[in-house]
Amino acid sequence: MTDPRPKHTNWDGAPVRPFAIDVPQAVLDDLKDRLARTRWPDAIPGTKWAYGTDPAYLRGLCDYWRNGYDWRTHEAALNRFPQYTARIGDIDVHFIHAKGEGANPRPLLLIHGWPGSFFEYHRLIERLTHPSRFGGSAEDAFTVVVPSIPGYGFSFSPGQPRFGLVEIAASLRTLMVDVLGYRGFFAHGHDWGSFVSTRLGYAHADAVRAIHITLLAIPRTMPSDPNPTPDEARYRRQLAHWLAEETGYSQIMGTKPQTLAFALTDSPVGLAAWIVEKFHSWSDSDGDIDAHFTRDVLLTNIMLYWATDAIGSSFWPYYARLHEPWIVPEGGAVAVPTGYAEFPREILSPPQSFAQRVYTNIRRWTRMPSGGHFPALECPDALAAELLAFFRTQSLSPLGRVG
Questions:
Q1: N or C, which end of the chain has less CB nearby within 10 Å?
Q2: Residue 2 has what pLDDT?
Q3: Could you tell me the CA-to-CA distances from 76 to 32, 71, 80, 155, 297 in Å, in that order?
Q4: What is the mean pLDDT of residues 243-267?
Q5: Residue 171 in contact with residue 119, Cβ under 8 Å?
Q6: What is the pLDDT, as a whole number, of residue 401?
Q7: Catalytic residue numbers?
């Protein structure tokens, strides 16, 4: 059997190349044609979102996708960010590299997850690179690097090696240190980005000086405890519900990723249904995701899977999670300074007593007033303030760039 994983995660030494998004018009025309020819399934009577994506909602979203949504407007908005690619581990890794204001902005890696994309951070970037424009201080500014993680969006081309969390973390360390020349940097992530940040803090602490996450990467099996604390008992109930009712998607993507890829690569409606259900279920939208995110935001994120044919490759971290060793080996721990923001509608919210078994240097634990699994889209002001507050207290030593 051929191993789909990369043989290395090194930089090939070639200069970074400027990048601009330019989806071929033929892709957009084909999309509209496919949307017009959709075969719609029947709806389970009276279901709405009870058994998955609400059929009536999806019809409205896809009608707007075909007749109202303007990809070129959003493409142009994304192209206002300085973007590049670098050859790492036999793939072209796409990333935004936005310089911060002031004399010494600190390098910060922002890592997305599934079913998200680098686009999730579009409202956060300026708040971090130019905090003075939002009532903050230029002294707190970051230079921000936002990659499309390998296998996602513009970091995908057909037939390339498949990166799990271990390889993603190693490739991003290569990007920050070898390609961009930062001796030390900070990392923040949500969803898989939290797990990749955790792996960076564990395996690449020579370069990653502190991490901030919104989802704790801890084991989901726990010893029985006859006397749990109220927080621990609450989490056990939350976890039991999650494992029973919400993990079907990850089991499919983690066991038969190729089979699912056929359907979602061929059908834009199928792709939208698969993704938008998670934005409905995992966000603090109170059921109204159009008001919470806007349809343009939802569709721009979906477009970054559709236009790049990257949905199948995006499944690989799920397969790797089920079939490879865990990112922090048993008995291991993340010792770099760690900040955690607990959003009330996050999918899982373990108590600190469980978290500190893996993260032994938790410096900040903030219970956020609102928000869910997609905080950079849901509450960018609150998340930016949290990141500024946490990393303000952390040190980069030595600070700056190699050479």
A1: N
A2: 67
A3: 20, 9, 7, 19, 14
A4: 97
A5: no
A6: 43
A7: 191, 318, 373
Question: Is the model's pLDDT at 258 over the cut of 60?
Answer: yes
Q: What percent of the chain has pLDDT over 90?
A: 93
* Average confidence (pLDDT) over 305-334: 96
The mean of the pLDDT values for the chain is: 95
Q: What is the pTM of this model?
A: 0.96
Residue type, 121: Y
Q: Please state, in angstroms and rounded to a whole number, the distance separating the CA atoms of residues 205 and 394.
A: 14
For residue range 340-396, list pLDDT tens digits in order.
999 999 999 999 999 999 999 999 999 999 999 999 999 999 999 999 999 999 998
